Amino acid sequence: MRFLEAQRNFIKSEEDYLEAMQKYYQSLVQLERFVGKELVFITKETKENE
User: Fold this and answer.
1) Residue 33, domain extent
2) CB-CB contact of 22 with 30 (8 Å)
3) What is the DSSP letter of 42?
4) Rounded distance, CA 45 to CA 23, Å?
């Protein structure tokens, strides 16, 4: 029984993590659209063009 509870907790934690990451990236996309440029994956070339 403890193993099943641990497995349920593990799966729930994974689901919570994936949901949080989804919300983060959705918010990031909205913010990038607002400011008009990528905020996370900025390369050296991107910085030189600013």
Assistant:
1) 2-48
2) no
3) -
4) 28
